[in-house]
Amino acid sequence: MKNLSHILLSCLLFFSVTGVNAGYAETSIDTIIFPFERKTFIEGNKSVSFHLRNGTTNIPYLIQGSMEYFSEATGKNAEKENKVEKLPFIITPPLFKLEPGKAYDWRILFSGNADSLPKDRESAYIVKFRAIPPKKIDTDEEVKGDNKKTDFTAIQAIHFKVYYRPKAFEKLLIEDAQKKLSFRVEGNELVVKNDSPIYMALDSFEVAGVTFEEDELFKPLIPLGEQRFKFSGNIKSGSKATWSVLDELVLDLSKETSVIQ
Hints:
By secondary structure, the protein is mainly beta. Helix content is 7%, strand content 40%.
């Protein structure tokens, strides 16, 4: 299985930190703690929930929640102007103060028209949480050459994926859906065809001498579609590849072997 950062990137979320500080700032994803699981909204349900916990002992965070569009090309959030449909989900509450050591469940409510969404495949969206700390945080560290304590503001942005699934295949498991994957090579691109109606994510792909950039394996396997992954190395038709995908609990399934077409 890939390391934890790749698991998070490829299936569940991506994470970023922005901030301005007087000396230096250190932060990590451990400040905001969450369970690892695929969030799938089944047609007809009222909502799904996202559980976050403040893992610090002294920093209250103002959590700002919002919904964003999903890009199948990158696996990340898409620019709004590139989308024409209205987002079918809202998040509540949009703003909440998460005290140190406390936890809270946000609800993602379906607010769209089910008839306007595809009936033969999943649709994907992004749930974004911005963790905003107080403007000034006293620490025990001192800036070199100054007796003043370091003050900084660092905003963590965590992006989760939420999948809308038509009720017709609500019980379909990724373990079964992975049997619908096929691989072929075109130039320096690996083309993965997904004939199943649900999104999947590669956890690993191994062919001797072939490497993929992390951003490439971040891309989703598109339901009833194809995804292209650029690689460095040499893959020829007839080569055997060993691969695995992530299941509903963000764990890698058993490795499979396929012949590249």
